[in-house]
Amino acid sequence: MTAPRAGAGRSLPAVLLLLAGLVSWSAGMMEALAAGAVDSSPAAGSSASLTAQAPAAPIVPKPSAEQQQRMPTPPAQPAPPKPPPDNAKELPARQVMTLLGSKAQDLAGEDLGPVVDIVVDRSGRPRALVIDFGGFLGVGSRKIAIDWRLVHFRPENQDAPVLLHLDRAELQAAPEFVPDVEPLRMLGPPPNAPGPPYVGR
């Protein structure tokens, strides 16, 4: 049987006293933190403070005046479409047709040339249809004015050419239409000949 070491009986009260002091100090710190008397933020320079800070933004150099001139100009934004006026009206597409640029043919279906103009009188009534007759790709052609009574339209078919109650031989013998020369000449029906059955359409 071994004898107890010297001082072993006195170490237990010292440990209990130390534990009581730590408990008392912890309770005081908790009360101080709750009251806001102690700054709980990490000290400057600590590792916690360094990790909480956001990384600094990179420094971008400002372009020089010469570089700014070389930069492409952004495209301009298109203006929004304007609303139609109150007096805008719609035309039934199946009942109308455009004339300028349309093909003109004789009754046999032979192409005579494109429509380039319309002649009207002082009251606004159409008097003649002008076509660019003959030639190739506009070379060697001449303008022929044709009496409006010899013109036949088919608005029910927009792609249909304008029909002329004439043939190529009559157009070859027709006088040229010159707008600035008096009198204006146009090709009409033969004298004392009955008009075509579709006159006035």
Provide key terms for this protein.
disordered C terminus; 6 strands; alpha+beta; 201 residues; SH3 type barrels
Describe the structure.
The protein has 201 residues and is of the alpha+beta class. The chain has helices spanning 8-35, 47-52, 65-70, 168-172; strands at 103-106, 111-120, 126-133, 142-147, 151-152, 162-164. The protein has a domain at 94-172: PRC-barrel domain (SH3 type barrels). It has a 6-stranded mixed beta sheet with strand order 4-3-2-1-6-5. 22% of the residues lie in helices and 16% in strands. The longest helix is centred in the first third of the chain and has 28 residues, at 8-35.
Give, in order, the helices and strands. Answer: HHHEEEEEEH
Number of strands: 6
If strands are numbered along the chain, what order do they take across the biggest sheet? Answer: 4-3-2-1-6-5
Q: What name does CATH use for the topology of the domain at 94-172?
A: SH3 type barrels
What form results from the Cα inertia axes?
rod-shaped
Structural class: alpha+beta
Low-confidence sequence ranges: 44-50, 197-201
Overall helicity: 10-25%
Write down the Rg.
Answer: 51 Å
**Nearest-integer average pLDDT:** 75
